[in-house]
Amino acid sequence: MCCSYPALRHGERLPERSNLPAEENHAAMRPEILNPLFRPVTSLAGVGPKIGEAMGRLLVGGDAPEPPRVADLLLHIPVGLIDRRNQPGIALSPEGAIVTLEVRIDRHMPAPRGNRRVPYRVMAHDDTGEIALVFFRSDNSFLERTMPVGETRFVSGKVEWFNGRPQMVHPDHIVDREAFEQLPMVEPVYPMTAGLARKTLGRALRGALDSLPELPEWLDPTLMSRQRWAAFKPTLETVHTPATPAELAPEGPAISRLAYDEFLANQLALMLTRANLRRAAGRARVGDGRMRRAITAALPFSLTGSQQAAIADIEKDLASGERMLRLLQGDVGSGKTMVGLMAAAIVIEAGSQAALMAPTELLARQHAKTLQPLADSAGIRMAILTGREKGKERAEILAGLDDGSIDLVVGTHAVFQAGVEFHDLALAIVDEQHRFGVHQRLALSAKGAATDILVMTATPIPRTLVLTAFGDMDVSKLPDKPAGRQPIETRTVPLERLDQVVERIRAAIAEGAKAYWVCPLVEESEEVDAAAAQDRFVDLQAALGPVVGLVHGRMKAAEKDEAMKRFQRGETRILVATTVIEVGVDVPDATIMVIEHAERFGLAQLHQLRGRVGRGSKASTCLLLYKGPLGEVAHDRLAIMRDTEDGFRIAEEDLRLRGEGELLGTRQSGTPGFKIARFEHHANLLEIARDDARLIVEKDPALQSPRGKALQLLLYLFGRDEAIKLLRAG
Ligand code: ADP
Ligand code: MG
User: Fold this and answer.
1) How far is the CA of 219 from the centre of ligand 2 (A)?
2) Do domains 290-478 and 488-644 have the same CATH topology?
């Protein structure tokens, strides 16, 4: 987890961990009552190092250095349930249902010798009908022993109907009456991993439940009775030993309670962090307006109404002395950079420093290039700092930031994570475009920093995501685009007509136009993408001559810069590119965007790419080249692109087509950052948890009341105990 963040005023430090190793340090502060839950799972009976490792893969994922804790195991909740009371009889078993059947074994039909593809069948019947139990690659003598002809057996498994006949392939259980009576009637089903038997997990969970102490209640009793929630321990008992499928329903009281606990821990940690930051900030920054006036005078345009409104919001935040955490939402091309610069100017007028972080080096350089002349005219001392500034140059910049002789630094996120000292950093501006992932890292890393934060994004982020990543965040929007912008005409063209497209472009550049040509993501590999772009570059150069340029992710930063500059200056008029140009590249006189294999791109990405044109006063065109036949989703995406330029609508459609996980760029299933809570089931609980947390922090900011102390346990249980350190420090 990333925790270093250099955004600190000189002489001010994050509430550092002591010199003890983190684990001991935590253990020392952690209330003793939790000790049994914070032991490694290997302390449970029947869990050795091997199983501990398998549980680690299951519970914490990947190559965690240590076995998971007992608490992690308890919060691993079942995904379903086997209900052995579901015994409808053979003929009445629905297709696909998991049932238990009490059957009489009639005959064995082994696979013919030497033909392993034909399964071994055992025919059996009950009062309602006959069923085939089917086994592939079976151990014949084992099957003969477990299912003697004429005996009664209980079999559980999934029933499938095949040509009007029922069968069960590889039943989960085949037992006699005696053994059946030993089995639990209802058994939870967990997400599993290799090397971990269901029985072993069940036994470990039993041990974990037994070691779970009765914990003091951290939830509000009124809320609990309204929601019919039980206490934490009985809730976990219910979840791990459910009696009916209803007890595991996501909206049912047991899972809901745990989801609420998880949301509350999240919201409380965020609120405590913010409260702490507010206390830390405590300094109002009021500029005298002189730099802003100089910038305005140097601009070739006047700011739009919504840009001015956003700047006014920010000015108020900065003057308030409370810490700012503001999201600036504005579609591609809406002019967010100017708002960022004006915000920076305010704190610089007040004698402090500002930093602008871009997601890529290319973009950092471009920002620097746009901002430099404006900074110069306002007397703002600006520097750029990326991985590329090295040696003496880098040392000078770092010194300038440390002694305050640099007012504004433009760079990439990476640099800011590497530990740069500032003399007095008042404002961090994060230019995110649409990659939301970094926001969350920011939320984590901004702990304790006294710096105001402005996040600029082109994607309207769903409120649920904002809440869980930041707690409440203020939002400014830039709904209107700068005046004089022409709409972009978007067309879809089958790839077969590539030659015609090339001819069209030839004609357009003869009249002075500039065009981007974006090559598709072939694989998740920059190398392969670069090769595709390289091939297209060679083709186009053969057709159109030396006016064709190339930029892709495998090129050195200096080469990329050079290619961009030549395109900007007009020495090249067609820029063949991979998606490196997706984010923020600004060449206002480029008016044609060709996207090859547009069907392979996501909506948000297509919208970002298209946003590279339509930035000047000339009409622009976007050609989406596709390879048919199109799947349904791809067809919808391209149709939406043709229909609208409205980023908010596109984001909504994108959500509809892809779901929240994709928007986050995480592609993981479920709700990111949460083990139990799911936005689709529990969004209403999130709002309640937010209000609850706010009230708690208002009334008991140090969490010292009896409920407050219980809430500290909650934070530990859900791994949000970072926030507890802030309590001690505060
Ligand atoms: P984005 O919101 O996508 O980051 P930019 O900040 O890159 O947008 O702005 C897009 C283009 O619009 C830039 O060329 C910028 O100089 C120009 N621009 C910004 N504000 C205005 C304005 N008020 N009037 C005209 N052009 C503007
Ligand atoms: Mg931008």
Assistant:
1) 43
2) yes
